[in-house]
Amino acid sequence: MQGMMMEQPLLVASLLKHAERHHGAREIVSRRVEGDIHRYCYRDLAQRARRMANALSSLVIAPGERVGTLAWNGYRHMELYFAVSGSGAVLHTLNPRLHADQLVYIIEHAQDRVIFFDLTFLPLIESVAARVTSPRFFIAMTDRAHMPRTHSLGSRLLCYEDLIDNHKDDFEWPLLDENSASSLCYTSGTTGNPKGVLYSHRSTLLHTYAAALPDALNCSARDAILPVVPMFHVNAWGLPYIACMTGAKLVFPGAALDGKSLYQLIEEEQVTVSAGVPTVWQGLLAHVESVAGSFSSMRRTIIGGAPCPTAMTQAFQKRHHVDVLHAWGMTELSPVGTVCSFKAHQTGLAEDERYALQAKQGRSVFGIDMKIVDAAGEELPWDGNAAGDLQVRGHWVANEYFGGDYASPLQDGWFPTGDVAKIDADGFMQIVDRSKDVIKSGGEWISSADIENVASLHPEVATAVCIAARHPKWDERPLLLIVKKPGSALEAADLLMFFDGRVAKWWKPDAVLFVDAVPIGATGKVLKNQLRDQYGGHYLQAG
Ligand code: AMP
């Protein structure tokens, strides 16, 4: 017997319709690349998104065609999120931090028909425009007064605000198939070419429902959300959609991601929750400490994309009374997979136990199932000790990569994440390493994430990165690369002593190298492959 309930497709445009009707006056605040602060509300967003949808049809963008964006977090980017996907085209967010060669590859691979860009990225657009054949137009996301003087784009250059002004807001969002594609995001491709993950309206909506929940990203109509995580990196972890679903105020930082600008925005706009990778928060914390500041409104910060060091959790929670929500995910997971929110019996944990728990990436949100397997594919127990390859499946996990030129990534219906993890009896997952970063010493694994976490607790350490360095006897041994805090005279021997009693003896790195900085990739993660190329022979040379 069939159920007798309405069948309504799960569509991205319905999020916008909801926000307009139920939270129309709620604010969206953006720091613009033009330099000023822009304010409007969901009602304006919806109206301008409909104008832009009409503009897209005047540019003859057919359903399913890709529309590229090269843009910071801001209201115009938000308009495109809904105008493009809502009208049946596919929003393709390009990562401007990628090398121009990779951008050319991605634009051609995706066959983007038009590309919208923030003024900051004009030089990048100029450098790729002659090398790509698919885009018919490049649209500067600005008004007529700020239009760039460039001859290299010729008649292919259009003005965003002209398109808005020249079109009416009478667009009717089409009733699409909920399984049709809504957006496209390429993985960062540290090995080989980037691969496209093609989200559907359905996967996006289900991800939005689940990610907004109290035990996930915990967003509500009372929140003011600051997504520092870029809208060009896995849809800013879904926050633009979550904000529409919940009616939260949105605060977009634009291009100003330094500690001072973020702090100013957080205080002036009374942000309650922010989200970003650890490297961004380092700048914020350093600034707030340098001015002896405090957070008057921020209650939570969501940290993911890379392991959140315990020292950072402590700085937020102990010094600033801001709760840290450690989360794990990936492009292929839309991205949210696990969030470290406590279960009832964990709320009374002692301080040390609480920080140990928060170092874990957390438990599955409903909609994602996970397991760890050994090299033979056999499932390993959830005992907090066994470490294996982490596999997932669920409503918003990629089934295959865009373009048809890749074999299915799935293994027996599960997506192999490329992460090595443990899962404890409460279902809390902890990443040991990316499988390619794991250190294999004498046939046993050492977790670089654990080593980094301990080193980061030392008060004079700003950044700690642990890599596998080749070793004549043990195959590989951990090598620690440290960026010291300004003014520190820390010696290697002192830092190594700090490990005594904190990790097993054979996990202790054999050497520490002090460096000025570590290379950071396009999505804010440390580029360990570069460091391995540079320092991986250290013990061979030393021996
Ligand atoms: P991306 O697809 O660029 O978002 O990268 C996904 C990868 O980032 C994951 O497979 C993990 O290796 C890593 N990652 C994401 N979140 C975390 C986290 N909280 N802790 C450790 N690694 C993480």
From TrEMBL:
In what residue span(s) does the AMP-binding enzyme C-terminal domain sit?
451-525
What InterPro entries does the entry give? AMP-bd_C, AMP-bd_C_sf, AMP-binding_CS, AMP-dep_synth/lig_dom, ANL_N_sf
* GO function terms (MF aspect): ligase activity
PANTHER family tied to this protein? ACYL-ACTIVATING ENZYME (PTHR43859), BUTANOATE--COA LIGASE AAE1-RELATED (PTHR43859:SF4)
Q: Which UniProt keywords apply?
A: Fatty acid metabolism, Ligase, Lipid metabolism
- What species is this protein from? Paraburkholderia hiiakae
Every AMP-dependent synthetase/ligase domain range: 17-402
What this protein is called in its record is 3-methylmercaptopropionyl-CoA ligase
> One Pfam match, by short name?
AMP-binding
Source organism's superkingdom? Bacteria
State the family it belongs to.
Belongs to the ATP-dependent AMP-binding enzyme family.
> EC number(s) of the enzyme?
6.2.1.44
Which top EC class applies here? ligase
